[in-house]
Amino acid sequence: MKYPLRALALAISTCLYLGAAQAQTEIQWWHSMGGALGEWVNDLAKDFNAGQKDYRIVPTFKGSYDESMAAAIAAYRAGNAPHVLQVFEVGTATMMAAKGAIKPVGEIMRDSGLAFDPAAYVPAVAGYYTAPNGQMLSFPFNSSTPVFHYNKDAFKAAGLDPNKPPTTWPEVALAAGKLKASGHKCPFTTSWISWTQLESFSAWHNVLFASKNNGFGGLDTRLVFNTPLHVRHIENLANMAQSGLFVYKGRGNAADATFVSGECAMATGSSALYGSVTRAGKFAYGIGTLPYYPDVPGAPQNTVIGGASLWAMSGKKPVEYKGIAAFFSYLSQPEVAAASHQRTGYLPVTKASFELTDKSGFYKKNPGTDVSVTQMIRKTTDKSRGVRLGNFVQIRTIIDEELEGVWQGKKAAKQALDEAIRRGNEQLERFEKANKS
Amino acid sequence: MQPRSPFRSAWLPWALIAPQMGVILVFFFWPAGQALYQSVLQQDAFGGAVEFVGLENFRRLFADASYLESFQTTALFSALVAGLGLGLALLLAVAANRVVRGALLYKTLLIWPYAVAPVVAGVLWLMLFASPYGVIAYLLRLMGLPWDHVLNGHHAMALVVMAAVWKQISYNFLFFLAGLQAIPRSLIEAAAIDGASPWRRFWTIVFPLLSPTTFFLLVVNMVYAFFDTFAIVDATTHGGPGKDTAILVYKVYYDGFKAMDMGGSAAQSVVLMGVVIALTVLQFKWVEKRVHY
Fold first, then answer.
1. Which of A137, A371, B11, B79 qualifies as a FRET site for B107, CA 20 to 30 Å off?
2. Does A115 share its domain with A217?
3. For residue range A90-131, what is the model confidence (pLDDT) as tens digits?
4. A398, A430, A435, A436: which to substitute to probe chain B, counting the most B Cβ within 10 Å?
5. Residue B151 and residue A99: Cβ atoms within 8 Å?
6. What per-residue confidence (pLDDT) applies to A1?
């Protein structure tokens, strides 16, 4: 060997390095945050890792929410699940029913001995991820809620007041008409049809989406979104679609990109679209509250959450759970949580982070960013606490399919909603049967 | 009469095919057996609660009207993919076979799409037709033909068929080209001397001699359309609008990997397996009679 000394030095330093690395406990975190949100997740991990020496969080992007959930389930079945998994709100009932596969966050925090006060978290958010016995099951990491996004430049061009977004559905139709008259091809669109136009719509008007308090009251819940109010709303959207005021852009978040690019002037979608628009949008951007029907008593109530939470998987070593607990308490620190909220547009996780953001003057400097918070931080009713259903992924697809028939002009609103309920209830019945035993 | 194999020892032929048999057992028979087993179980996503339910998963499938409609969608989709895929590939192969200069370049370019993963093929075609930035959608709009695969079922079907055909055309092209080059030139020249037109030469000499290749490709393309196209659908239309492009294999994928309904998904893949076995047997029984080896 030509350089025996150098080789030896290399070997020794490698051993030392590995030794140091082994002393650290690695915690695998699978997530679904791409683009600007992916950078956010990586920054959080970097900051946490730099702040202490015992644990190392390793974030891995595993594709979209359903893809990373499928990957984690496959890994769990093969016996090597990640420690922490980000699961979208639609998957919550599945995770809750998967006893033995997950370890409740409340339990992890208690065992770790770290300070943990469930009351510090925003109730409308944490309540969704809490078991009936009051134990927090997953960590409310990134919760969003649907809001109304609008393009102020397009409003100006159409002769609308850019500082007065429409707040009711009749006003939305009027604004869309003016936008169309000014030559706009896509006045209004929406992403996540079921979430924005049926689930949040129901809570916002304080009516049920599904019986048994939207699934919170038991597995024998059934869909009930074919009331005259729901039918009226879908009919209204169908009429807007016929006259070119509402343009359907596809399932999931397909419509988001059309708002960011400026193609569509108004959109209902996740409050977390804020980060993308401020980064990539080339227009003056405004946020308004979700529209409602002013003649409905009790409206507006509050909207429901979307986004995702972090679940700890079962069967890991005690020291690893300590690391998970340390990471969750890091995420709950008021400064960290406030910075995340301001950066992404996701809801603040803790009350303290909301107050901190408020005091810093962020909401005054960035009008509209408080909309999601004020929509959520309200006293919820049993009808508006949220929607938690089994086989929710399939139910949302069924709603997409049936409503596409309405936008095509092939189906009447009532007919599509009835059919969606019939098909969706089959999914609920199956979930009930599978999880009873 | 087939000549007897020249092997003297009894075990050598078995030993020689053993590796291939191993691959088939591990990658084909074992998963197929697993699918059969899982199709009679109902389990939660994490496999924590597993219950034997007999034929319940199948009963549920055939009680679902939209599942039965999906057979029609699949038949249309497969016929289009196999028909267009074979027709276009044959056309390209005949043309490439006549090219003298730059033949290698054409061939390479034509084989290229085969290296592309189905999901990427789907995304590429989606980009071309997406509103408002898609190039082809833009050109169509200029010609007064508004394209909307989000709400127009025919457009959506056209889009997935185009992506699926484009992806498979290279494979078909390769086999057709090899088949064309194996046809003795003397036969074609003799026909030319007898005064047969190029059209006639193609249909009476070339096409019949290509029939083994065509038959093989027909089977392969049907299997491709039935099994390998879910990623294209997932990347472009998600089976929409409504259920207009929800082919059987897409529902298998969706129920298994998005909805985590393993039992239902396994039952569907068993049904699909049955359909393809039946189709292949039919093809061997009826179509192969017309094949000249």
1. B79
2. no
3. 999 889 888 789 999 999 999 999 989 988 998 888 889 988
4. A430
5. no
6. 42
Cβ burial B47-78 (10 Å sphere, 16+ → b, else e):
eebeeebeebbbebbeeeeebeebeebbeebb
Quote the CA–CA distance of A232 and A54 in Å, as a whole number: 57
What are the two backbone dihedrals, phi and then psi, of residue B128, each rounded to the nearest 5 degrees? -65, -30
| Segments of chain B with pLDDT less than 70 | 1-5, 292-293
Whole-number Cα distances in Å, A37 to A86, A119, A336, B125: 13, 27, 15, 27
Q: Which residues of A touch B261 (CB under 8 A)?
A: 391, 394
My answer on whether A111 and A165 are in the same domain is no
Put simply, whether A314 touches B (Cβ < 8 Å) is no
Largest CA distance in chain B: 75
A249 shares a domain with A177: yes
A23/chain B closest Cα distance in angstroms:
32
Residue of B nearest to A400 (CA): B242
CB nearest to B259's CB, from A254, A394, A407: A394
Residues A103 and A150 in one domain: no
Domains defined for chain B, CATH in brackets: 56-290 (1.10.3720.10)
Is-contact A427 B261, C-beta < 8 A? no
Nearest to A248 among B150, B153, B239 (CB): B150
Closest partner CB to A434 (pick from B42, B153, B239)? B42
Going by the DSSP 8-state scheme, the letter that residue B113 receives in this structure is G
Nearest CA to A29 out of A70, A55, A56, A60 is that of A60
Q: Which of B153, B240, B260 sits opposite A94 (nearest CB)?
A: B260
Q: Cα–Cα distance between B133 and B147 in angstroms, integer?
A: 12
Instruction: Tell me which H or E stretch contains B200.
Output: helix B198-201
Residue A63 contacts B, CB cutoff 8 Å: no
Which of B44, B46, B259 lies at the smallest CB-CB distance from A393? B259
Q: Which domain holds residue A414?
A: 146-304+390-436
Tell if the CB–CB gap between B150 and A249 is shorter than 8 Å. Answer: yes
pTM of the model: 0.87
Closest residue of chain B to A185, computed from CA coordinates: B132
Residues of B within 8 A of A94 (CB-CB) are 44-45, 260
Q: Are B235 and B116 in contact (CB under 8 A)?
A: no
Does residue A8 belong to any structural domain of this protein? no
Q: Do A29 and A120 fall into the same domain?
A: yes
Once rounded to an integer, what is the mean pLDDT over residues A168-175? 97
User: Is ipTM beyond 0.90?
Assistant: no
Report chain A residues whose CB lies below 8 A from the CB of B48: 98-101
β-sheet bridge partners, residue A26: A56
CB distance from A80 to chain B under 8 Å? no
Do A391 and B42 lie within an 8 Å CB cutoff? Answer: no
Q: How many CB atoms lie within 10 A of CB A296?
A: 15
Tens digits of residue pLDDT in B179-208 = 999 999 898 899 989 988 888 989 988 999
Q: What is the identity of the amino acid at A268?
A: T
pLDDT single digits (tens) B109-162: 888 888 888 889 999 999 999 877 789 988 998 898 888 899 999 999 999 999
Same domain, A198 and A256: yes
Q: Structure tokens of B269?
A: 């893949």
Residues of B in contact with A250 (CB under 8 A): 150, 240
Name the residue of chain A whose CA is nearest to B56's CA.
A430
A355 and A311 in a common domain: yes
Domain with residue A232: its CATH number is 3.40.190.10
Q: Which of A350, A365, A380 corresponds to the end of one domain? A: A365
Helix axes B207-227, B65-98, angle to 10 degrees: 140
User: How many domains does the structure of chain A reveal?
Assistant: 2
CB contact under 8 A, A434 and B44: yes
Q: pLDDT per residue over A236-279, tens digit each?
A: 999 999 999 999 999 988 899 999 999 999 999 999 898 889 88
